[in-house]
Amino acid sequence: MGEEKVSGHRLRFAVIGDPIAHSRSPELHEAAYRALGIEHASYERVHVPRGEFACFARDILPLYDGVSVTMPHKAHAHELAVAHGAHAELQIANTLLPIGSGRKRRYVAFNTDVAGIQGALYSAGISGIESATLLGSGATALSLAVALHEAGCKRFTLLARSRQKLTALESLLTSRGVHVRVGDWDHPARSFDADIVASALALEGAKTAACRVLDHLDEVARVPSAFFDALYFPDPTPLARVRMALADRMDCATAPAFATGAHMLAHQAARQVELMCGVEAAPAEGMYEAVFGVGI
């Protein structure tokens, strides 16, 4: 274990977002503290309503030694910072750490979602993927696109309810020299001809897409070798149900590999613990098992 930050000082951290009550981040961070023997750190949930990030940053953020940032505040967190970690080109951040103190306090922003997705893929044994069908167009979709590209994907099919909202994702992937096409949201099954189908959809959108695929399984040309779902509830997630239905229909000897949102959450939280507490390696898999249990 590396040397802990600010020895003797009680560290206070939080996760912010709207909504926030569902967040499992406190349990994950606290599991890491227990495993690492960190006794001088606490972590809590703070509800910051949409549109109130600026007030939070001025009045409450200085009370903390760092915060995790969830939707809808990731772009605002990036904008607040005076320095950024890897993948700053995404212009979204899920971690803010202070530098300086008092009126001179400023913030460094990090995106640990990309690392979280890469950790989830590794945990599921997913590698050698060259093509991807990506569902969603928000902040998580941007991180997911980068993680998949860095994992070897060179061809992407994008699916989202709003064609217009895919502009940022298309621009990002095009700038990386990736081949991109936009699929038909009304017929998502026709776009499942990829090595991996990866979803960054919120629950309602995921339910809609899953129902359309399940109603037209005959339109799926082949079973993808892997699936990724940023959701970790309900269990099974809508995409997990599609995965099993396709495996049954195609009479697969084994179901395609599946990387879960729970593993993503654990791995991105582990990276946050490393940044926040100054430790060399947080136990991502131990954090996952402590909070979600094995075999989720």
Automatic annotation (TrEMBL):
Domain SDH C-terminal intervals: 261-291
UniProt keyword list: Amino-acid biosynthesis, Aromatic amino acid biosynthesis
SUPFAM superfamilies on file: Aminoacid dehydrogenase-like, N-terminal domain, NAD(P)-binding Rossmann-fold domains
Pathway note: Metabolic intermediate biosynthesis; chorismate biosynthesis; chorismate from D-erythrose 4-phosphate and phosphoenolpyruvate: step 4/7
Cross-referenced PANTHER family: BIFUNCTIONAL 3-DEHYDROQUINATE DEHYDRATASE_SHIKIMATE DEHYDROGENASE, CHLOROPLASTIC, SHIKIMATE DEHYDROGENASE
Domain of life where this protein originates: Bacteria
Protein name (database record): Shikimate dehydrogenase
Species for this entry: Dermabacter jinjuensis
